[in-house]
Known about the structure:
The protein is of the alpha/beta class. The chain has a domain at about 80-295: Spore Coat Polysaccharide Biosynthesis Protein SpsA, Chain A. The protein has helices at about 1-20, 25-35, 40-70, 70-75, 95-100, 120-130, 155-160, 185-205, 220-230, 295-305, 320-330, 345-350, 365-370; strands at about 80-85, 105, 110-115, 135-145, 170-175, 210-215, 220, 230, 235-240, 240-245, 250-255, 260-265, 280, 285-290. The strands form three sheets. The chain has an eight-stranded mixed beta sheet, sandwiched between helices. A four-stranded mixed beta sheet has the order 7-14-10-11. The protein has a two-stranded antiparallel ribbon with strand order 2-8.
Amino acid sequence: MSGGYSNSKKTDDIYEKVCGQASFAALTMSRLRCMLRGIDIRICIVLLIAIPVFMFGIYLHGQKITYFLRPLWESPPKPFHEIPHYYNENVTMERLCHLHGWKVRESPRRVFDAVLFNNEIDILALRWNELSPYVTQFVLLESNSTFTSLLKPLLFAGNRHQFKFVEPRLTYGMIGGRFKKGENPFVEEAYQRVALDQLLRIAGIEEDDLLTMSDVDEIPSGHTINLLRWCDDIPPVIHLQLRNYLYSFEYHVDNKSWRASVHRYKPGKTRYAHYRQSDIILFDSGWHCSFCFRYVSEFIFKMKAYSHTDRVRFPHYLNPKRIQDVICKGADLFDMLPEEYTFKEIIGKMGPIPHSYSAVHLPAYLLNNAEKYKYLLPGNCRRESG
């Protein structure tokens, strides 16, 4: 009995001597051993491996995690009041106005179509040919700077000869960039939109003229603009719901594009903007074809130039081979999750966009020039390098 007690006491004495003494040598040599006393070494190894792997995973996929959890920290916007859209080429304008609850005018309003131009030459041609029969004045502002303060050529000025059919009705302006590196890109974007307000006044816009506000790739259908210019009592500001496409008209994402809008111009009050300005939206009013470029080089330029440049998180995103593969798969250029407000919508849209082989109800100019714009039609995902 005493022997057993002596052995236990001896062990305690040794521990006291090693872990309890104040000598510098003892503390230095054995502190780690005391700290780890009773801890399984296998747990330490697992933690040493798991923690770096976890941190690297956050670095790679942190943005995806944030977007997936969006329903937890952001509520969906207030729903639009949707106006049903009636149209058939064999129905009179008087009847169409009546179906929408409006009266027909004795003469149509003047229409001004105003855009900020970056590098979308082909899409601009589709837009202006679609709207040409109904637009009084085309207004285009071009800068030698991207929203991210990159120097860019004046592409419209260099290709102006392609648009002789609108030349008598064109008000063109050029604005020099401020080139403030590190500034929020939306500040430069707002600066250019303010300049577009001034260009509209130079173009001669007057009270109650119709003004379309949309990016070049947000194309209202011609019959939509014709309806709004002929009908009385339309809302002062009405958003246009557009069919949303990515890369070409082969990849139909959804019908949720809403930023395009039409305004009954009010001097001193109407300001050119690209955000929600009304609760009213006219359904099925055109097409939004985002990143619909002919050349891979144009994709790279847009990815570096537009306001969401922070989405290019890794240099390999700009690799031409990767971009071509992404286009043909219908995947996301920035490897992002869908920007939705419910888990159901996020999960439902995850993965590549399904291919659509419908070319029905597309801009007439596109179909009449299908050979030239073949890359925008179903079954033609391969792009030229540029």
